[in-house]
Amino acid sequence: MSRYRLYPTADQAMVMAEHCGHARYVWNLAAEQQSWWNPRRGPAPSYIEQNRQLTEARRAFDWLATGSVIVQQQALRDFSTAMANFFRGTHRKPRFRKRGRGEGFRIVAVKPSDVRQINRRWSEVRIPEVGWVRFRRSRTVPDAKSYRITVDRAGRWQVGFAAVPEPILAPGTGEVVGVDRGVAVSAALSTGDLLSCPGPRSPEQARLLRWQRRLARAQRGSVRRARIARVKARGVGRRKDWVERTSTDLARRFDVIRVEDLRVKNMTRSARGTVEAPGRNVRQKAGLNRAILAAGWGQLVQRLEQKSPGQVEEIPAALTSRRCSACGHGAAGSRESQARFRCVACGHTANADVNAAMNIAAGRAVTARGGAGLPVPVNREPQHSTPPLLVGV
Ligand SMILES: [Zn+2]
User: pLDDT grade, residue 183 (50/70/90)?
Assistant: First the structure.
């Protein structure tokens, strides 16, 4: 996101403030419906249904009808994206928006003609119902597909352009890689590579935990909060950098990138270990690490999808961690520990996350029903002739 300071006239700012209010109203309406619905009442209204309700609301309320339908619909769409991200396990549940906090609205389907340069320093962006609004071009404006207008509490307006990265040309070798969201590391590749997304460094982490424990007593806007924010921001920067490098590297090296469907994964696994092989003594730091891993993983998949459009496949796999990538045997006992996999049928040993990544690369896994009797990779017979020692143990 590249941000620029916007300089609307007083009249323009008034309309933009109304847009913010409408976007917030529509978002909160959607959030309220979501919180009211529960599984017994059936699914929450979809975007289409909410859009129909919006049309009705616009008929009923003049103040809403005078606003931009583009802004209001987009708020609904953003909410439904936020819910989808929540279900994927990559983001927090969308919350109510408060007046004056994080105010803004988003415009998508932006054409190159919606942004124009006036002179060396200034450009303009076209905003629905507002017209051309000037912004300071502090650096090159990316070729954006959408932008978000925000206003801070001091009344300063900003426009942020979401740059869609250029797709990276695949190598054309037909090579497939499986990427597994690891427990101990951030991601494991079927090639055997273990990737770890940088979190806070150890001393930083210890400090962060100490500070966070004391935070309950801290005042809003206190020095402590500021310190925590600073350390966290450093971690965010390092993580972003890692996501960029890793996604580019994978997009360049492989034609097909297979990842596990997170909706399934979420139910079977957490940073505390797997359901089959729960970790021990990991409660400390687990919360912090879990959040970092989850965020890093979500960003990595998102970036991969942008850099290799059409080449990322989500494998609807469950229990990839208990299937042997060599012989196909699936058994809970094969997962020796968080880190080690040792097949109870053929004795094949591997790093547990790499083994799971290889199953993902092959596009298959043990189903919830399954155990033994699973498809064995065609060209790979079990690599032993004597019965493995571990059978029946
Ligand atoms: Zn095996």
Answer: low
3-state secondary structure of 158: strand
Residue 7: strand, helix, or coil: strand
Pick the catalytic residue from 32, 129, 353, 381: 353
Task: Please choose, from the candidates 198, 200, 276, the residue with its C-alpha nearest in 3D space to the C-alpha of residue 241.
Answer: 198
Domain positions in the chain: 2-163, 170-196+251-393
Comparison of pLDDT for 75 and 183, the residue scoring more: 75
β-pairing verdict for 256-260 and 176-181: parallel
Assigned token pair, 356: 């799971």
Residue 275: which pLDDT band, with cuts at 50, 70 and 90? very low
Residue 270 vs residues 90, 181, 277: alpha-carbon distances, Å:
13, 10, 11
- Residue 21, Ramachandran bin (φ over 0: left; ψ between -120 and 50: alpha; else beta): alpha
Alpha helices in the chain (DSSP H): 10-36, 47-60, 62-65, 69-88, 202-214, 223-253, 262-268, 286-307, 352-361
Q: Is 56 exposed, middle or buried (0-12, 13-18, 19+ CB in 10 A)?
A: exposed
- How big is the chain by its Cα radius of gyration, in Å? 25
Any idea which of 26-30, 88-92, 251-255 has the lowest mean pLDDT? 88-92
Residues with CB under 5 A from ligand 1 (ion): 324, 326-327, 329, 343, 345-346, 348
CA angle 25, 27, 28 (to 5 degrees): 65
Neighbouring residues of 148: CB distance < 8 A, sequence distance ≥ 6: 1, 104, 105, 106, 107, 159, 160, 162
Is-contact 352 344, C-beta < 8 A? no
* Known active-site residue 353: yes
Least confident of 122-126, 188-192, 199-203: 199-203
49, 124, 180, 276: which is the annotated catalytic residue?
180
**260 labelled catalytic:** yes
Query: pLDDT tens-digit profile of 287-311?
Result: 656 666 666 777 888 888 888 888 8
CA of 318 to the centre of ligand 1 (A): 18
> In the structure encoding, which two tokens stand for residue 113, read together?
């003609």
> Which residues share a beta bridge with 188?
180, 194
Check residues 100 and 258 and name the one with the higher pLDDT: 258
